[in-house]
Q: What sequence folds into this?
């Protein structure tokens, strides 16, 4: 279970409710297979987000070490948490949002505040939204075909 101080991002996928409703009618193994497929997608996007953080700068690179995939029926990526980072041993969650959105008054993040825009974490997920959705829906279709018998 992710710490309360970690940021969990579930990727938005159109039609997900219908797919998950259909899965409830299938054997439990169908859900297990979909979770495995979603985890593989999550691992790839987490690796890409981690690399984006490394490329963004020192603070983001520190926080990027906490980025990981989480197991769920949908692709999920987690960042932050209580892991102590940097020479001052600050918890990752205290660095996450500054490295992601910048800061208005403090020079510590080296980037200006950009409001709801993102420097690396959310941006990476958003940039891959279409591909993530496509791959997950393909995996869900395959699971339904395999366990639904059609």
A:
């Amino acid at each position: 279970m992710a710490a309360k101080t970690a940021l969990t991002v579930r990727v938005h996928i159109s039609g997900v409710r219908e797919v998950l409703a259909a899965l409830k009618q299938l054997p439990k193994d169908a859900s297990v297979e979909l979770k495995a497929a979603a985890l593989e997608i999550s691992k790839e996007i987490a690796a890409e987000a981690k690399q984006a953080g490394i490329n963004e700068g020192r603070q983001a690179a520190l926080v990027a070490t906490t980025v990981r995939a989480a197991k769920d029926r949908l692709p999920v990526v987690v960042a932050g948490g209580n892991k102590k980072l940097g020479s001052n041993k600050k918890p990752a969650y205290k660095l996450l949002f500054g490295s992601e959105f910048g800061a208005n008054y403090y020079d510590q993040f080296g980037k200006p505040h950009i409001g709801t825009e993102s420097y690396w974490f959310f941006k990476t997920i958003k940039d891959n939204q279409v591909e993530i959705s496509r791959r997950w829906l393909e995996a869900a279709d395959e699971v339904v075909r395999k366990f639904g018998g059609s």
Q: What stands out?
A: Helices lie at 16-24, 28-56, 58-64, 92-101, 121-127, 129-148.
